[in-house]
Design brief:
The complex is a heterodimer of chains A (119) and B (108).
Chain A lengths: L2 E5 L3 E2 L5 E8 L7 E7 L5 E7 L6 E3 L7 E6 L4 E6 L8 E9 L4 E5 L3 E5 L2
Parallel strand pairs in A: 2-11
Antiparallel strand pairs in A: 1-3, 3-8, 4-5, 4-9, 5-6, 7-8, 9-10, 9-11
Chain B lengths: L3 E4 L2 E4 L5 E7 L8 E6 L6 E5 L3 E2 L7 E6 L2 E6 L9 E8 L2 E4 L3 E5 L1
Parallel strand pairs in B: 2-11
Antiparallel strand pairs in B: 1-3, 3-8, 4-5, 4-9, 5-6, 7-8, 9-10, 9-11
The chains are: A mainly beta (119), B mainly beta (108).
Chain lengths: 119, 108
């Protein structure tokens, strides 16, 4: 059974750093592209960052470029999002999601990790 | 960057009614890369339709998708109580995804 479980959400002060984790099971993350998608409470979905199946292609939304870093660890089958210099507008639920190639859709999503940026 | 605009923002309907949701892209996109999701309060998005018109595993056939170019549609033939939710369209291109702002289907 495919599962994605995020962890690491917390309350953090503006300018601080946080690392989110997404533990995958039921498949190998080096067979799929993976992404982080966020959703501010009561708002819509916003793509944050993605990494392709072989790790050779990484991209970021303009809103987080230079501040967030996506990475993965094949041995632990985990995806990460390092968040630096966080701002109030980064407050959201952060979902990791598995990307299916050719049609490029997200077929599995985690339950989300809540990040609250507040002084 | 492609922008997806969904309309209407909110629909108030009764169970049994037919509903059509619109997703318009700011420029022409590949039919293969248009996806629809359903999201209920407190839950993660759920895949409904991929490649414009292919239903995901386990999705009832009352859900259907169509479209091409810049205009895409999600239809629900007869609303069931469990269909009241927010629906998002999504496009994937040049290594990033774009989501529409969502359409809320609420009970009238």
């Amino acid at each position: 059974e495919v599962q994605l479980v995020e962890s690491g959400g917390s309350v953090i002060r503006p300018g601080g750093s946080l690392r989110l984790s997404c533990a995958a099971s039921g498949f190998s993350i080096d067979d799929y592209g993976m992404s982080w998608v966020r959703q501010a409470p009561g708002k819509g979905l916003e793509w944050v960052s993605g990494i392709n199946w072989d790790g050779g292609s990484i991209d970021y939304a303009d809103s987080v470029k230079g501040r967030f870093t996506i990475s993965r660890d094949i041995a632990s089958n985990s995806l990460f999002l390092q968040m630096n210099s966080v701002r109030a507008e980064d407050s959201a639920f952060y979902f990791c999601a598995r990307l299916r190639g050719s049609f490029y859709y997200y077929d599995y999503w985690g339950q989300g990790a809540l990040v609250t940026v507040s002084s | 960057e492609i922008v997806l605009s969904q309309s209407p923002g909110t629909l108030s309907l009764s169970p049994g009614e037919r509903v059509t949701l619109s997703c318009r892209a700011s420029q022409g996109v590949s039919k293969n890369h248009v996806t629809w999701y359903q999201q209920k309060p407190g839950q993660s998005p759920r895949l409904l339709i991929y490649g414009t018109s292919s239903r995901a595993t386990g999705i009832p056939d009352r859900f259907s998708g169509s479209g091409s170019g810049t205009d895409f549609t999600l239809s629900i033939s007869r609303l069931e109580p469990e269909d009241f939710a927010v629906y998002y369209c999504q496009h994937y291109g040049t290594s990033r995804a774009t989501f529409g702002q969502g359409t809320k289907v609420e009970i009238k």
